[in-house]
Protein backbone atom coordinates (compact mmCIF):
# COMPACT_ATOMS: atom_id res chain seq x y z
CA UNK A 1 0.00 0.00 0.00
CA UNK A 2 2.81 2.36 0.86
CA UNK A 3 4.34 1.42 -2.49
CA UNK A 4 1.27 2.51 -4.41
CA UNK A 5 1.11 5.74 -2.47
CA UNK A 6 4.72 6.58 -3.33
CA UNK A 7 4.24 5.62 -6.97
CA UNK A 8 1.34 8.06 -7.12
CA UNK A 9 3.48 10.84 -5.69
CA UNK A 10 6.32 10.03 -8.07
CA UNK A 11 4.26 9.90 -11.23
CA UNK A 12 4.04 13.02 -13.32
CA UNK A 13 0.39 13.98 -13.74
CA UNK A 14 -1.07 16.44 -16.19
CA UNK A 15 -2.60 19.26 -14.19
CA UNK A 16 -4.85 21.87 -15.71
CA UNK A 17 -4.92 25.45 -14.57
CA UNK A 18 -8.20 26.11 -12.81
CA UNK A 19 -7.67 29.75 -11.87
CA UNK A 20 -4.97 32.36 -11.51
CA UNK A 21 -4.80 35.22 -9.05
CA UNK A 22 -2.31 38.07 -9.13
CA UNK A 23 -0.93 38.51 -5.61
CA UNK A 24 1.61 41.27 -6.26
CA UNK A 25 3.14 42.78 -9.39
CA UNK A 26 5.49 39.82 -9.82
CA UNK A 27 3.72 37.06 -7.91
CA UNK A 28 0.82 34.89 -9.02
CA UNK A 29 -1.11 32.07 -7.38
CA UNK A 30 -2.12 29.25 -9.68
CA UNK A 31 -4.86 26.83 -8.66
CA UNK A 32 -4.55 23.41 -10.28
CA UNK A 33 -6.93 20.61 -11.06
CA UNK A 34 -5.15 17.25 -10.73
CA UNK A 35 -6.65 13.99 -11.95
CA UNK A 36 -5.20 11.89 -9.15
CA UNK A 37 -4.35 13.82 -6.00
CA UNK A 38 -4.24 11.94 -2.72
CA UNK A 39 -3.95 15.04 -0.55
CA UNK A 40 -0.97 16.76 1.00
CA UNK A 41 0.48 18.00 4.29
CA UNK A 42 1.04 21.65 5.11
CA UNK A 43 4.56 22.64 4.08
CA UNK A 44 5.00 20.15 1.25
CA UNK A 45 5.80 21.10 -2.32
CA UNK A 46 5.23 19.89 -5.84
CA UNK A 47 7.64 19.54 -8.72
CA UNK A 48 6.45 21.22 -11.92
CA UNK A 49 7.68 20.23 -15.38
CA UNK A 50 7.28 22.19 -18.59
CA UNK A 51 8.04 20.75 -22.02
CA UNK A 52 8.68 22.82 -25.13
CA UNK A 53 7.77 21.76 -28.66
CA UNK A 54 11.35 20.74 -29.38
CA UNK A 55 11.31 18.38 -26.43
CA UNK A 56 13.30 20.65 -24.14
CA UNK A 57 12.01 20.37 -20.59
CA UNK A 58 12.61 22.25 -17.38
CA UNK A 59 11.64 21.28 -13.84
CA UNK A 60 11.21 23.42 -10.74
CA UNK A 61 9.80 22.94 -7.23
CA UNK A 62 7.08 25.13 -5.74
CA UNK A 63 5.60 25.06 -2.25
CA UNK A 64 1.91 24.28 -2.01
CA UNK A 65 0.09 27.43 -0.91
CA UNK A 66 -3.20 25.77 -0.05
CA UNK A 67 -4.12 23.78 3.06
CA UNK A 68 -4.67 20.02 3.13
CA UNK A 69 -8.17 19.46 1.86
CA UNK A 70 -8.18 22.50 -0.40
CA UNK A 71 -7.45 22.29 -4.13
CA UNK A 72 -3.74 22.36 -4.88
CA UNK A 73 -2.44 25.87 -5.47
CA UNK A 74 1.10 27.12 -5.96
CA UNK A 75 2.34 30.69 -5.67
CA UNK A 76 5.12 31.67 -8.06
CA UNK A 77 7.37 34.69 -7.94
CA UNK A 78 8.64 35.93 -11.27
CA UNK A 79 12.44 35.96 -11.40
CA UNK A 80 13.50 38.23 -14.24
CA UNK A 81 16.28 35.99 -15.48
CA UNK A 82 14.34 32.83 -14.79
CA UNK A 83 13.33 30.33 -17.42
CA UNK A 84 10.26 28.82 -15.80
CA UNK A 85 8.87 31.45 -13.44
CA UNK A 86 8.20 34.12 -16.11
CA UNK A 87 6.23 31.51 -18.06
CA UNK A 88 4.13 30.63 -15.03
CA UNK A 89 3.51 34.22 -13.96
CA UNK A 90 3.06 35.87 -17.36
CA UNK A 91 2.11 33.31 -19.98
CA UNK A 92 0.16 30.48 -18.36
CA UNK A 93 -3.62 30.76 -18.74
CA UNK A 94 -6.68 29.07 -17.29
CA UNK A 95 -7.16 25.80 -19.14
CA UNK A 96 -3.45 25.32 -19.91
CA UNK A 97 -1.81 22.09 -18.80
CA UNK A 98 1.45 21.56 -16.91
CA UNK A 99 2.97 18.42 -15.45
CA UNK A 100 3.08 18.10 -11.69
CA UNK A 101 4.38 15.47 -9.30
CA UNK A 102 3.95 15.27 -5.57
CA UNK A 103 3.30 16.01 -2.85
CA UNK A 104 6.95 15.99 -1.85
CA UNK A 105 8.52 16.46 1.54
CA UNK A 106 8.37 15.06 5.03
CA UNK A 107 10.72 17.32 6.95
CA UNK A 108 9.38 20.82 6.39
CA UNK A 109 5.81 19.95 7.33
CA UNK A 110 3.38 20.77 10.12
CA UNK A 111 0.48 18.54 11.07
CA UNK A 112 -2.22 19.98 13.31
CA UNK A 113 -1.68 17.25 15.89
CA UNK A 114 2.09 17.98 16.24
CA UNK A 115 3.19 18.43 19.84
CA UNK A 116 4.69 21.90 20.29
CA UNK A 117 1.99 24.34 21.34
CA UNK A 118 3.87 27.32 19.96
CA UNK A 119 4.98 27.83 16.38
CA UNK A 120 7.41 30.40 15.05
CA UNK A 121 7.25 31.03 11.32
CA UNK A 122 9.95 33.23 9.78
CA UNK A 123 9.54 34.04 6.10
CA UNK A 124 11.73 35.90 3.65
CA UNK A 125 10.02 36.99 0.42
CA UNK A 126 8.34 34.05 -1.29
CA UNK A 127 9.25 31.94 1.74
CA UNK A 128 5.79 32.88 3.02
CA UNK A 129 4.14 30.38 0.66
CA UNK A 130 4.40 27.18 2.74
CA UNK A 131 3.35 29.20 5.79
CA UNK A 132 0.06 30.08 4.13
CA UNK A 133 -0.59 26.36 3.92
CA UNK A 134 0.31 25.94 7.59
CA UNK A 135 -1.84 28.87 8.72
CA UNK A 136 -4.85 27.76 6.69
CA UNK A 137 -4.45 24.21 7.95
CA UNK A 138 -4.32 25.51 11.51
CA UNK A 139 -7.56 27.39 11.03
CA UNK A 140 -9.38 24.62 9.19
CA UNK A 141 -8.39 22.03 11.78
CA UNK A 142 -9.41 24.19 14.75
CA UNK A 143 -5.91 23.98 16.20
CA UNK A 144 -5.19 26.15 19.25
CA UNK A 145 -1.45 26.33 18.60
CA UNK A 146 -0.13 29.86 19.21
CA UNK A 147 1.72 31.26 16.21
CA UNK A 148 4.14 34.11 15.77
CA UNK A 149 4.88 34.97 12.15
CA UNK A 150 7.75 37.24 11.16
CA UNK A 151 7.61 38.14 7.47
CA UNK A 152 10.43 40.01 5.77
CA UNK A 153 9.60 41.67 2.45
CA UNK A 154 11.16 44.46 0.42
CA UNK A 155 8.15 46.76 0.70
CA UNK A 156 4.47 46.65 1.55
CA UNK A 157 3.38 46.08 -2.08
CA UNK A 158 5.71 43.06 -2.08
CA UNK A 159 3.91 41.41 0.83
CA UNK A 160 2.15 38.33 -0.55
CA UNK A 161 -1.28 37.37 0.90
CA UNK A 162 -1.43 40.65 2.79
CA UNK A 163 -5.21 40.86 3.03
CA UNK A 164 -5.38 37.33 4.34
CA UNK A 165 -2.56 37.81 6.83
CA UNK A 166 -4.08 41.04 8.11
CA UNK A 167 -7.29 39.21 8.99
CA UNK A 168 -5.71 38.43 12.37
CA UNK A 169 -6.54 34.78 12.85
CA UNK A 170 -7.02 34.40 16.59
CA UNK A 171 -3.83 33.13 18.19
CA UNK A 172 -1.65 34.27 15.29
CA UNK A 173 0.48 37.36 15.65
CA UNK A 174 2.03 38.81 12.50
CA UNK A 175 5.08 41.06 12.36
CA UNK A 176 6.36 42.51 9.12
CA UNK A 177 9.76 43.92 8.44
CA UNK A 178 10.03 45.98 5.26
CA UNK A 179 13.65 46.09 4.26
CA UNK A 180 13.82 48.46 1.30
CA UNK A 181 10.91 50.84 1.44
CA UNK A 182 8.29 51.65 4.05
CA UNK A 183 5.00 53.52 3.62
CA UNK A 184 4.58 56.90 5.33
CA UNK A 185 3.78 56.49 8.99
CA UNK A 186 5.14 52.93 9.15
CA UNK A 187 5.69 51.85 12.73
CA UNK A 188 6.83 48.31 12.04
CA UNK A 189 10.32 46.95 11.55
CA UNK A 190 12.34 48.36 8.70
CA UNK A 191 15.51 46.31 8.48
CA UNK A 192 16.80 42.90 7.52
CA UNK A 193 16.11 40.23 10.08
CA UNK A 194 18.95 39.91 12.57
CA UNK A 195 19.40 38.30 15.97
CA UNK A 196 18.14 41.40 17.80
CA UNK A 197 14.94 41.47 15.77
CA UNK A 198 14.41 37.79 16.38
CA UNK A 199 14.96 38.33 20.11
CA UNK A 200 12.09 40.82 20.11
CA UNK A 201 9.66 38.83 18.02
CA UNK A 202 10.36 35.14 18.51
CA UNK A 203 9.03 32.98 21.33
CA UNK A 204 11.61 32.78 24.10
CA UNK A 205 13.79 29.68 23.83
CA UNK A 206 12.31 28.17 27.00
CA UNK A 207 8.91 27.94 25.25
CA UNK A 208 10.35 25.08 23.18
CA UNK A 209 8.48 26.40 20.16
CA UNK A 210 8.85 24.68 16.82
CA UNK A 211 10.41 27.14 14.40
CA UNK A 212 10.25 27.13 10.60
CA UNK A 213 12.45 29.41 8.49
CA UNK A 214 11.87 29.70 4.75
CA UNK A 215 13.21 32.00 2.08
CA UNK A 216 16.43 32.75 0.21
CA UNK A 217 19.45 30.82 1.45
CA UNK A 218 21.30 33.73 3.13
CA UNK A 219 18.07 34.73 4.91
CA UNK A 220 17.47 31.22 6.23
CA UNK A 221 21.07 30.88 7.41
CA UNK A 222 20.83 34.18 9.31
CA UNK A 223 17.55 33.21 10.91
CA UNK A 224 18.63 29.68 11.87
CA UNK A 225 21.90 30.92 13.35
CA UNK A 226 20.06 33.70 15.16
CA UNK A 227 17.51 31.37 16.71
CA UNK A 228 20.19 28.92 17.84
CA UNK A 229 22.13 31.83 19.35
CA UNK A 230 18.96 32.75 21.26
CA UNK A 231 18.87 29.26 22.71
CA UNK A 232 16.57 27.40 20.33
CA UNK A 233 17.46 23.71 20.07
CA UNK A 234 18.73 23.06 16.49
CA UNK A 235 16.33 20.13 16.25
CA UNK A 236 13.40 22.53 16.73
CA UNK A 237 14.50 24.83 13.89
CA UNK A 238 13.38 23.58 10.49
CA UNK A 239 14.77 25.23 7.39
CA UNK A 240 13.82 25.38 3.73
CA UNK A 241 16.05 27.36 1.41
CA UNK A 242 14.79 28.84 -1.81
CA UNK A 243 17.18 30.17 -4.39
CA UNK A 244 17.15 31.68 -7.82
CA UNK A 245 17.88 28.19 -8.94
CA UNK A 246 15.34 26.44 -6.77
CA UNK A 247 12.27 28.38 -7.66
CA UNK A 248 12.99 30.22 -10.90
CA UNK B 1 4.98 11.44 -23.86
CA UNK B 2 4.90 14.67 -21.91
CA UNK B 3 2.30 17.14 -23.12
CA UNK B 4 3.73 20.30 -24.62
CA UNK B 5 3.25 23.35 -22.42
CA UNK B 6 1.67 25.90 -24.74
CA UNK B 7 4.02 28.78 -25.40
CA UNK B 8 6.93 27.46 -23.36
CA UNK B 9 10.37 27.48 -24.93
CA UNK B 10 13.92 27.51 -23.74
CA UNK B 11 15.33 30.92 -23.17
CA UNK B 12 17.93 30.74 -25.91
CA UNK B 13 18.07 29.05 -29.28
CA UNK B 14 20.60 28.71 -32.09
CA UNK B 15 20.33 31.37 -34.75
CA UNK B 16 20.66 29.61 -38.11
CA UNK B 17 23.83 31.52 -38.98
CA UNK B 18 25.80 30.06 -36.07
CA UNK B 19 24.76 26.46 -36.51
CA UNK B 20 28.16 25.16 -37.64
CA UNK B 21 29.91 26.70 -34.65
CA UNK B 22 27.69 24.85 -32.20
CA UNK B 23 28.46 21.18 -31.41
CA UNK B 24 25.68 18.58 -31.52
CA UNK B 25 23.09 18.80 -28.73
CA UNK B 26 24.05 22.31 -27.69
CA UNK B 27 22.09 25.58 -27.70
CA UNK B 28 23.42 29.11 -27.67
CA UNK B 29 23.23 31.41 -24.70
CA UNK B 30 23.92 35.10 -24.49
CA UNK B 31 24.41 35.13 -20.75
CA UNK B 32 27.10 33.29 -18.82
CA UNK B 33 25.55 30.62 -16.60
CA UNK B 34 27.29 29.90 -13.32
CA UNK B 35 27.49 26.23 -12.44
CA UNK B 36 29.11 24.93 -9.32
CA UNK B 37 29.52 21.73 -7.33
CA UNK B 38 30.44 23.52 -4.13
CA UNK B 39 30.89 26.85 -2.38
CA UNK B 40 32.77 29.61 -4.22
CA UNK B 41 36.32 29.84 -2.88
CA UNK B 42 37.60 33.32 -2.17
CA UNK B 43 41.37 33.24 -2.35
CA UNK B 44 43.28 36.45 -1.72
CA UNK B 45 45.85 37.28 -4.39
CA UNK B 46 48.49 37.48 -1.68
CA UNK B 47 47.84 33.80 -0.91
CA UNK B 48 47.52 32.62 -4.50
CA UNK B 49 50.10 30.37 -6.14
CA UNK B 50 50.09 28.17 -9.22
CA UNK B 51 52.25 25.08 -8.98
CA UNK B 52 53.38 22.31 -11.27
CA UNK B 53 54.00 19.15 -9.30
CA UNK B 54 55.55 15.82 -10.17
CA UNK B 55 55.51 12.75 -7.91
CA UNK B 56 54.43 14.83 -4.96
CA UNK B 57 57.15 17.46 -5.32
CA UNK B 58 56.64 20.98 -6.56
CA UNK B 59 58.75 21.46 -9.67
CA UNK B 60 57.85 25.09 -10.18
CA UNK B 61 55.55 27.61 -8.58
CA UNK B 62 54.49 31.19 -9.33
CA UNK B 63 52.85 33.68 -7.02
CA UNK B 64 50.38 36.22 -8.41
CA UNK B 65 52.96 38.88 -9.29
CA UNK B 66 55.21 36.32 -10.95
CA UNK B 67 52.34 34.90 -12.97
CA UNK B 68 51.19 38.34 -14.07
CA UNK B 69 54.71 39.19 -15.18
CA UNK B 70 54.59 36.36 -17.72
CA UNK B 71 53.62 37.17 -21.31
CA UNK B 72 49.82 37.20 -21.56
CA UNK B 73 47.40 37.39 -24.45
CA UNK B 74 43.77 38.00 -25.25
CA UNK B 75 42.04 34.81 -26.27
CA UNK B 76 38.71 34.72 -28.08
CA UNK B 77 37.02 31.34 -27.90
CA UNK B 78 33.72 29.53 -28.23
CA UNK B 79 32.93 27.54 -25.08
CA UNK B 80 30.68 24.51 -24.67
CA UNK B 81 29.24 23.26 -21.39
CA UNK B 82 28.18 19.66 -20.99
CA UNK B 83 24.86 20.94 -19.60
CA UNK B 84 24.19 21.95 -23.22
CA UNK B 85 24.78 25.68 -23.37
CA UNK B 86 27.39 27.14 -25.70
CA UNK B 87 28.65 30.70 -25.77
CA UNK B 88 30.46 32.13 -28.76
CA UNK B 89 33.30 34.63 -28.93
CA UNK B 90 34.11 34.79 -25.24
CA UNK B 91 37.13 36.94 -24.53
CA UNK B 92 39.73 36.14 -21.93
CA UNK B 93 43.02 37.57 -20.71
CA UNK B 94 45.34 34.66 -20.10
CA UNK B 95 48.81 33.14 -19.94
CA UNK B 96 49.40 30.19 -22.24
CA UNK B 97 49.92 26.86 -20.46
CA UNK B 98 52.84 26.38 -22.88
CA UNK B 99 54.58 29.29 -21.17
CA UNK B 100 54.16 27.65 -17.77
CA UNK B 101 55.02 24.08 -18.78
CA UNK B 102 58.11 25.26 -20.68
CA UNK B 103 59.70 26.04 -17.34
CA UNK B 104 59.46 22.44 -16.15
CA UNK B 105 61.42 19.40 -17.26
CA UNK B 106 59.02 16.52 -17.60
CA UNK B 107 57.99 13.50 -19.63
CA UNK B 108 54.41 13.33 -18.42
CA UNK B 109 51.54 12.39 -20.69
CA UNK B 110 48.66 13.57 -18.47
CA UNK B 111 47.84 16.19 -15.91
CA UNK B 112 45.36 16.44 -13.08
CA UNK B 113 44.42 20.07 -12.49
CA UNK B 114 43.76 20.82 -8.82
CA UNK B 115 41.78 23.74 -7.43
CA UNK B 116 40.71 25.59 -4.33
CA UNK B 117 37.64 23.85 -2.95
CA UNK B 118 38.93 20.43 -3.99
CA UNK B 119 37.78 20.30 -7.60
CA UNK B 120 39.97 18.36 -10.02
CA UNK B 121 39.89 17.48 -13.69
CA UNK B 122 42.21 15.41 -15.89
CA UNK B 123 43.64 16.24 -19.32
CA UNK B 124 46.22 14.82 -21.72
CA UNK B 125 49.34 16.99 -21.89
CA UNK B 126 48.93 17.23 -25.65
CA UNK B 127 45.55 18.88 -25.12
CA UNK B 128 46.96 21.66 -22.98
CA UNK B 129 50.01 22.43 -25.09
CA UNK B 130 50.54 23.72 -28.62
CA UNK B 131 48.42 26.81 -28.01
CA UNK B 132 45.31 24.93 -26.89
CA UNK B 133 45.06 25.94 -23.23
CA UNK B 134 45.54 28.91 -20.95
CA UNK B 135 45.54 30.09 -17.37
CA UNK B 136 42.89 32.82 -17.56
CA UNK B 137 42.79 35.69 -15.06
CA UNK B 138 40.60 38.12 -16.96
CA UNK B 139 37.23 37.90 -18.69
CA UNK B 140 35.93 40.54 -21.09
CA UNK B 141 38.58 43.01 -19.97
CA UNK B 142 37.87 42.72 -16.24
CA UNK B 143 39.49 40.61 -13.54
CA UNK B 144 37.90 37.17 -13.50
CA UNK B 145 35.10 37.13 -10.88
CA UNK B 146 35.10 34.45 -8.19
CA UNK B 147 31.82 32.92 -9.39
CA UNK B 148 33.43 32.37 -12.80
CA UNK B 149 36.59 30.91 -11.34
CA UNK B 150 38.64 33.92 -10.27
CA UNK B 151 41.42 34.69 -9.38
CA UNK B 152 42.33 32.31 -12.22
CA UNK B 153 40.93 29.30 -14.05
CA UNK B 154 42.00 26.91 -16.73
CA UNK B 155 40.74 27.66 -20.20
CA UNK B 156 40.61 24.68 -22.57
CA UNK B 157 37.95 25.63 -25.10
CA UNK B 158 38.23 22.62 -27.40
CA UNK B 159 36.88 20.34 -24.66
CA UNK B 160 33.67 20.54 -22.62
CA UNK B 161 33.92 23.41 -20.20
CA UNK B 162 34.08 21.27 -17.05
CA UNK B 163 37.69 20.72 -18.10
CA UNK B 164 38.32 24.47 -17.79
CA UNK B 165 38.73 24.14 -14.07
CA UNK B 166 37.69 27.13 -11.97
CA UNK B 167 39.88 28.32 -9.07
CA UNK B 168 42.80 26.33 -10.46
CA UNK B 169 45.94 26.25 -8.32
CA UNK B 170 48.14 23.93 -10.31
CA UNK B 171 48.77 20.81 -12.34
CA UNK B 172 49.92 17.42 -11.17
CA UNK B 173 51.99 15.79 -13.93
CA UNK B 174 51.13 12.12 -14.33
CA UNK B 175 52.18 9.17 -16.46
CA UNK B 176 48.68 7.71 -16.62
CA UNK B 177 45.25 9.28 -16.99
CA UNK B 178 43.37 9.59 -13.70
CA UNK B 179 39.74 10.67 -13.35
CA UNK B 180 39.06 14.04 -11.77
CA UNK B 181 35.88 15.13 -9.97
CA UNK B 182 33.20 14.81 -12.66
CA UNK B 183 35.07 12.02 -14.44
CA UNK B 184 34.98 9.91 -11.30
CA UNK B 185 31.21 10.35 -11.14
CA UNK B 186 30.67 9.12 -14.68
CA UNK B 187 31.56 11.93 -17.04
CA UNK B 188 33.86 11.24 -19.99
CA UNK B 189 37.61 11.11 -19.42
CA UNK B 190 38.34 13.20 -22.51
CA UNK B 191 35.21 15.28 -23.24
CA UNK B 192 35.25 16.28 -26.92
CA UNK B 193 32.05 18.27 -27.58
CA UNK B 194 32.24 17.60 -31.34
CA UNK B 195 32.00 13.87 -30.71
CA UNK B 196 29.48 14.49 -27.90
CA UNK B 197 31.67 12.74 -25.33
CA UNK B 198 29.59 13.71 -22.29
CA UNK B 199 29.54 10.47 -20.27
CA UNK B 200 31.95 7.56 -19.85
CA UNK B 201 31.45 5.15 -22.71
CA UNK B 202 30.11 7.78 -25.13
CA UNK C 1 23.99 31.74 -6.98
CA UNK C 2 23.18 30.08 -3.72
CA UNK C 3 23.27 26.56 -2.50
CA UNK C 4 19.94 25.02 -1.53
CA UNK C 5 19.18 22.20 0.87
CA UNK C 6 17.91 18.65 0.74
CA UNK C 7 14.28 19.82 0.53
CA UNK C 8 15.02 20.85 -3.06
CA UNK C 9 15.77 17.27 -4.08
CA UNK C 10 12.87 15.61 -2.31
CA UNK C 11 11.42 14.48 -5.63
CA UNK C 12 14.74 13.18 -6.96
CA UNK C 13 15.37 11.27 -3.74
CA UNK C 14 11.91 9.69 -3.96
CA UNK C 15 12.82 8.54 -7.48
CA UNK C 16 16.13 7.09 -6.33
CA UNK C 17 15.10 5.51 -3.05
CA UNK C 18 11.41 4.88 -3.66
CA UNK C 19 10.41 6.67 -0.48
CA UNK C 20 10.45 10.08 1.22
CA UNK C 21 14.07 10.66 2.22
CA UNK C 22 14.36 14.25 3.37
CA UNK C 23 13.78 13.15 6.97
CA UNK C 24 16.34 10.37 6.66
CA UNK C 25 19.41 10.94 8.81
CA UNK C 26 22.67 10.73 6.91
CA UNK C 27 26.08 10.22 8.49
CA UNK C 28 29.01 11.85 6.72
CA UNK C 29 31.75 9.33 5.88
CA UNK C 30 34.37 12.06 6.17
CA UNK C 31 33.61 13.81 9.47
CA UNK C 32 31.00 11.56 11.08
CA UNK C 33 28.43 14.29 11.62
CA UNK C 34 24.81 13.23 11.23
CA UNK C 35 21.66 15.14 10.33
CA UNK C 36 18.50 15.06 8.23
CA UNK C 37 19.08 14.97 4.49
CA UNK C 38 16.78 18.02 4.32
CA UNK C 39 19.50 20.05 6.02
CA UNK C 40 22.36 19.01 3.72
CA UNK C 41 23.80 21.53 1.31
CA UNK C 42 22.62 20.95 -2.26
CA UNK C 43 24.04 22.27 -5.51
CA UNK C 44 21.57 21.84 -8.35
CA UNK C 45 23.28 23.93 -11.01
CA UNK C 46 26.05 21.67 -12.13
CA UNK C 47 26.60 18.75 -14.48
CA UNK C 48 25.08 16.71 -11.65
CA UNK C 49 23.30 17.17 -8.33
CA UNK C 50 25.85 17.46 -5.54
CA UNK C 51 24.91 16.99 -1.89
CA UNK C 52 27.44 18.14 0.73
CA UNK C 53 27.81 17.76 4.46
CA UNK C 54 26.78 20.94 6.29
CA UNK C 55 29.49 20.41 8.90
CA UNK C 56 32.56 19.75 6.74
CA UNK C 57 31.41 20.46 3.14
CA UNK C 58 32.59 17.06 1.89
CA UNK C 59 30.58 15.47 -0.88
CA UNK C 60 27.95 13.05 0.47
CA UNK C 61 26.11 12.13 -2.68
CA UNK C 62 26.23 12.88 -6.41
CA UNK C 63 23.38 12.11 -8.78
CA UNK C 64 23.92 12.34 -12.51
CA UNK C 65 21.05 12.00 -14.95
CA UNK C 66 22.27 10.05 -17.94
CA UNK C 67 19.49 9.54 -20.46
CA UNK C 68 16.78 7.65 -18.62
CA UNK C 69 19.08 6.58 -15.77
CA UNK C 70 19.93 8.18 -12.47
CA UNK C 71 23.57 7.39 -11.63
CA UNK C 72 23.93 7.71 -7.88
CA UNK C 73 27.24 7.86 -6.02
CA UNK C 74 26.91 7.48 -2.25
CA UNK C 75 30.57 7.00 -1.27
CA UNK C 76 30.51 10.11 0.89
CA UNK C 77 27.69 8.74 3.06
CA UNK C 78 28.66 6.29 5.76
CA UNK C 79 25.08 5.56 6.72
CA UNK C 80 21.47 6.51 6.02
CA UNK C 81 18.67 5.89 8.51
CA UNK C 82 15.12 6.22 7.29
CA UNK C 83 11.78 5.12 8.72
CA UNK C 84 10.75 1.62 7.65
CA UNK C 85 7.41 1.15 5.91
CA UNK C 86 4.67 -0.03 8.20
Largest interface: A-C, 27 and 25 residues
Note the overall shape of chain A.
Answer: globular
Total count of helical runs of at least 4 residues of chain A: 6
Instruction: Give the C-alpha Rg of chain A.
Output: 18 Å
Uncertain residue segments of chain C: none
Mean pLDDT of chain C comes to 95
From the 3D structure, determine the CATH topology of the largest domain in chain A: Rossmann fold
**Biggest sheet character of chain C:** 5 strands, antiparallel
Rg of chain C (C-alpha, Å)? 12 Å
Strand order within the widest beta sheet of chain A: 4-3-6-1-2-5
Note the overall shape of chain C: globular
Q: What is the residue-averaged pLDDT of chain A?
A: 94
Task: Set out the fold topology.
The complex is a heterotrimer of chains A (248), B (202) and C (86).
Chain A: H1 2-10, E1 13-24, E2 27-33, E3 45-51, E4 57-63, E5 73-77, H2 85-91, E6 97-104, E7 118-124, H3 129-141, E8 146-153, H4 162-165, E9 172-178, H5 195-201, E10 210-216, H6 217-229, E11 237-242
Helix pairs in contact in A: 5-6
Chain B: E1 27-28, E2 49-54, E3 57-63, H1 64-68, E4 73-80, E5 85-96, H2 97-101, E6 110-115, E7 120-124, E8 134-139, E9 142-143, E10 153-155, E11 168-174, H3 181-184
Parallel strand pairs in B: 1-5, 2-11
Antiparallel strand pairs in B: 2-3, 4-5, 5-8, 6-7, 6-11, 8-9, 8-10
Chain C: E1 4-5, H1 10-17, E2 25-28, E3 34-36, E4 41-43, E5 49-52, E6 59-66, E7 69-73, E8 77-81
Antiparallel strand pairs in C: 1-4, 2-3, 2-8, 4-5, 5-6, 6-7
Walk me through this protein's architecture.
- The complex is a heterotrimer of chains A (248), B (202) and C (86).
- Chain A has six helices and eleven strands.
- Chain A is 21% helix and 33% strand.
- In chain A, a hairpin with a 5-residue loop joins β3 and β4.
- Chain B has a domain at 23-30 and 77-202: Oxidoreductase, molybdopterin-binding domain (Sulfite Oxidase, Chain A, domain 2, Alpha-Beta Complex).
- In chain B, a hairpin with a 2-residue loop joins β2 and β3 (57-63).
- The two termini of chain B are 25 Å apart.
- The mean pLDDT of chain B is 95.
- Chain C has 86 residues and is mainly β.
- Chain C has one domain (4-81).
- Helices cover 9% and strands 40% of the residues of chain C.
- Chain C is built from one helix and eight strands; from the N terminus they run βαβββββββ.
- Chain C has one helix spanning 10-17; strands at residues 4-5, 25-28, 34-36, 41-43, 49-52, 59-66, 69-73, 77-81.
- Chains in contact: A-B, A-C, B-C.
- The A-C interface holds A 2-3, 6, 9-10, 45, 47, 61, 101-102, 104-108, 216-218, 238-246 and C 1-8, 10-11, 14-15, 18-20, 22-23, 36-39, 44-45, 85-86.
Amino acid sequence: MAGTAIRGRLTWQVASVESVRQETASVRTIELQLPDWAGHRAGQHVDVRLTAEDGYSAERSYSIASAPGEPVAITVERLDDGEVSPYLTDELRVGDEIEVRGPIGGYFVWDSHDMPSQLLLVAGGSGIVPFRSILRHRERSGSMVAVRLLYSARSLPDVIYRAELDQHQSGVSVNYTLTREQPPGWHGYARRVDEALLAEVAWPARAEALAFACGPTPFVETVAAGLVALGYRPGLVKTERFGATGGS
Amino acid sequence: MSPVSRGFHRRHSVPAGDVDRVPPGQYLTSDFPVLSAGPTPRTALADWTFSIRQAGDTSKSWNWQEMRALPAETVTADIHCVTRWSKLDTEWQAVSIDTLLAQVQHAASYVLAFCDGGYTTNLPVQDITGGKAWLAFGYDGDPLEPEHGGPARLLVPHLYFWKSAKWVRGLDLLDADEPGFWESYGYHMYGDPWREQRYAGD
Amino acid sequence: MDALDGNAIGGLLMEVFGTEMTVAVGTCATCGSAGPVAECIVYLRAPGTVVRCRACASVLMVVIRRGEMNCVDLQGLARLEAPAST
